[in-house]
Amino acid sequence: MNVNARIRTLPFLVALTLAVPAFAAPKAANDTITKPVKTVVQSVRYEKDLKALENLGGEQQGLFLLGDEWTKATDAQRKEFIQLFHSLFAKMAFPKVRENFKNLDSITYDEPQVTGDKALVGSTIFINHPLKKQEMKLKYSVEKVGSAWKVVDVSVLGDSMLTGIRDDQVRPLFKEGGWDGLLGAMRTKNNELASVKLK
């Protein structure tokens, strides 16, 4: 390579070197967004329920489930709702997820689709059941809470988990008895499941 060729190549190499951090930055940002999703999935799979719950956005879930009523609630009501909702969710949903994971083959994650402080993370779960191989497509909704990202919702085949819970359970209970009725029903159900211990 002659001197002129080297000089012509130098700006390209400098540009390439400077560009490397720019390419790396989105991957690091994406990893930060997908990390809570992966943590929830792995924690549920290996019966680390409390670790999974730490990565859920309770405030954001409460706001979605109760709308304006959430903003009118007292701090004590919101705090108890989150505690009861997460306890019930872990006791009822996590064992079913673990049952599905018994024949888990692999899980893949898509690059997150980010809009401001919200993102969607697609995932495909491959189940290698002796009778039938299954492929489940999920989409997780995550939101930035402070400096961390939290899992808020998950959709299976386009059906939002939180939408189902809101329409089938939370809204009817709240309409009938307000905050007292809703929290009372949740306490009763949680007591019925007292034998299910979260780890």
Short note summarizing the structure:
This protein is of the alpha+beta class and 199 residues long. The protein has six helices and six strands.
Explain how this protein is built.
The protein has 199 residues and is an alpha+beta fold. The protein has a single domain, classed as Tgt2/MlaC (Nuclear Transport Factor 2, Chain: A, Roll). The protein has 6 helices and 6 strands, in the order αααααββββββα. Strands 1, 2, 3, 4, 5 and 6 form a 6-stranded antiparallel beta sheet that branches. α3 packs across α5, α3 (58-66) packs across α6 and α5 (75-101) packs across α6 (161-192). The longest helix has 43 residues, at 3-45. The protein is globular. The relative contact order is 0.13.
Q: Indicate the overall shape.
A: globular
Quote the average pLDDT: 86
**Poorly predicted runs of 5 or more residues:** 1-25
| Helicity level | 55-70%
CATH architecture: Roll
| CATH class descriptor name | Alpha Beta
Largest sheet: 6 strands, antiparallel
Beta-strand portion reads 15-25%
According to CATH, the homologous superfamily is Tgt2/MlaC
Topology as a string of helices (H) and strands (E): HHHHHEEEEEEH
Number of distinct helices: 6
What would the CATH topology be? Nuclear Transport Factor 2, Chain: A
Radius of gyration based on Cα positions? 22 Å
| Total discrete domains | 1
Q: How many distinct beta strands?
A: 6
Helix/strand-derived category reads alpha+beta
Distance between the termini: 65 Å
